[in-house]
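Give me the fold.
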Amino acid sequence: MLNRYPLWKNLLVLLVVILGFLYSLPNLYPDDPALQISHESLELTEGDTPVITTALEAAQVEFFGEENSDGSVLVRLGSLEDQLRAKTAIENALTDDYIVALNLAATTPSWMQAIGAGKMNLGLDLQGGVHFLMEVDMDAAIERRMQDNQSNVRTILREERIRSRGLNIVDSSHLEVRFATEEARRQGRSALIDSFPELQFQNRDAEGVFILDMRMSADVMLQIQRDTLQANRTTLLNRVDALGVSEPTVQQQGSDRIVVELPGVQDPAQAIRILQRIATLEFHLEAELGSPSLSYENYIYDGISVNVDNDVILQGDRVSNAVSSLDQNGLPQVILNLDGQGGNQINRISRDNVGRLMDVLLIETKSRTIVTLDAEGNEVEETEFYEDKRLIMHAVIRSALGRQFSITGLDPREANDLALLIRSGSLAAPMTIVEQSVIGPSMGRENLEQGILGVQVAATLVVLFMLAYYRVFGLAANAALIMNILLIFAIMSSILPATLTLPGIVGIVLTVGMAVDANVLIFTRIREELALGVPPQQAIDAGYNRAFTTILDANLTTFLVAAVLYTIGTGPVKGFAITLMIGIMTSMFTAIVGTRAIVNLIYGGRNVETISIGAQKRIKEVEA
């Protein structure tokens, strides 16, 4: 029978509508402003909560629902103003080792969370988030490369049994190797030149010493800077991905800076801790007895004084993977996997140094606030960055090491964080955070309200036009339009989680207009069939069947353009493209299947002579 769906198809449409409603419903529950308090290295316990609540009570800030989970404390507040006041009060009450981050606490009912229904992620322009401006130390990148070259030169000369009188780094791009005789310099140059194609070699004599100068050219230094910036950007992206942040922004700014924006983060305190821990690894041997004091640095490991040789035998960028686990004694450990070159390098060095102690240094770039007095006697706060080196492993080399070995002596949290940092990649050069801010949702509230207003106005105008112009069929199109908006929100919220940005709202507004395009084509085709004298039931069936190809072609071309935008675009462009693609898919379903189901319920299986599709008098005049 014409214009009758089988029961299963009607139930399918009903099920889609119910699911769309349920999974878009959490967006009606506003989040509570909250503060998340954590420590840089320690897990907070319930004993820390009274200190925080006392500080809030002293500042006369109303709060509720304080929670202690995952080693941090979450405090809910009544308003954004209270949130900012509470942040200041808690920061004044705690030391600099604590991180107080602005957050939003979900209010979605537990039964919705149980079925996987959640709120849509909002972008930085609508919700706020964490913002960093990070600067790469390019001089350190070049110096680190030269230090690596110095270590390799020493190893090659030792293997070739060529004696030198010292290796000195004159500046970050200049290494000089001293020899006692011209013949030794010639042999050294012959042994080294093939291993260092990026360096320029030049002979020089000074005070009876035969010197071999090894310099980096300007082009090589520029390439190192470019590679360093790109490598650090990739590392930061990997770290952000490990945190599970949706639609992050990690992009280059200028020649030595990187902007990191993390919108809608679930755990901003962890994001701050991981990104602030700008860490690299260095592998050394313990200094031999009687070594000159300038050839080693002293560290404390488990209460023992350890002299660590200055020569770096392996850099952290040779570590390809790291996993935290428990050893045979149930203690935390980090299992390291090296790449091919790193594996060969550690194997050669450990083979030649069985019985010696190997040390692993964790090097972090940290910041501290220094209060100074200006010329007028006023206190001025300045941020100072410094390197914090810590010995995290001190173990005897029992045999030649392979590409995999483990680091022990860490607590569980240190092991997890260290594995994440290493797994995401060691930074090619140290970075300092020159600008840091946690952007609250108040900055994006106006954008969000105006965007929602735009969607409401667009939808209202489309609804009024369709209702006035197409009557009952317009009513079906309006119902499908509402269904379409619900499905877009449901898909972006829970089914296919995506981040909504301001350009994304523009995409939704565009989709609202496009959603009725298919219905306009269908309804126009039905009118044409009626004008030709086709009975209403056949006209309805022909309108849907014959307009389908045109609708498919039009939407497919638009979808392909949106897919290209999503593939090659970044940030706002991606936000627009994703909502447009989702809107096209949902509008195809609601316009063709949804409106057809409603029209079938109204007219299907009935003997009708006229249908309410608007402008009937005009059609009869055309027929005459």
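The domain at 139-220 is CATH 3.30.1360 (Gyrase A; domain 2).
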